[in-house]
Amino acid sequence: MAARERAYAPYSGFRVGAALLADGKIYRGCNIENASYGASNCAERTAAFAAVAAGAGHFQAIAIIGGREERAESYAWPCGICRQVLSEFADEEMQVIAAKSESDYRICSFKSLLPHGFSRETLFESTK
């Protein structure tokens, strides 16, 4: 929730915060919008890139909260691009927590969010 406070969302008003547990440390991220929409970045990727830039290499869990204004009215699950980025450093059992509040949240495994993800194994299998 603290990460969400730093979100920059002047166009959509949809503010998202993420807290990523990687190698035992927590990395925060928020969504950052841009007038050129394609240059925007999601909270999950902001947290992932911060973790990797700090030297982390294995993601254990991520918690995400998002919504318009000050309320999170629905669960904010990672988008497809974020799922793909997370898959590079997560195992299938990584916990994904989508929250509306500290007491209202859902948890699932990363595998259930991206059951047939594109991975390094996919790259190597395609060369055989």
Structure description:
The protein has 128 residues and is an alpha+beta fold. The protein has a single domain, classed as Cytidine Deaminase, domain 2. Helix content is 23%, strand content 31%. It has four helices and five strands. The model has no long low-confidence stretch (mean pLDDT 93). Its EC number is 3.5.4.5. InterPro entries: CMP_dCMP_dom, Cyt/Deoxycyt_deaminase, Cyt_deam_tetra, Cytidine_deaminase-like.
Proportion of beta-strand residues? 25-35%
pLDDT < 50 runs, ≥5 residues = none
The tally of strands reads 5
The CATH homologous superfamily corresponds to: Cytidine Deaminase, domain 2
User: Given the structure, what is the number of helices?
Assistant: 4
Could you give the distance between the termini?
46 Å
Globular, elongated, flat, extended or rod-shaped: what is the shape? globular
Report the structural category. Answer: alpha+beta
**Which CATH architecture would you pick?**
3-Layer(aba) Sandwich
Q: Outline the biggest β-sheet.
A: 5 strands, mixed
CATH topology: Cytidine Deaminase, domain 2
Number of domains: 1
Protein topology:
Blueprint: E1 14-22, E2 25-30, H1 43-53, E3 59-68, H2 80-87, E4 90-99, E5 105-109, H3 110-113, H4 120-125
Parallel strand pairs: 3-4
Antiparallel strand pairs: 1-2, 1-3, 4-5
Binding site for substrate: 31-37
Protein name: Cytidine deaminase
Binding site for Zn(2+): 42, 79, 82
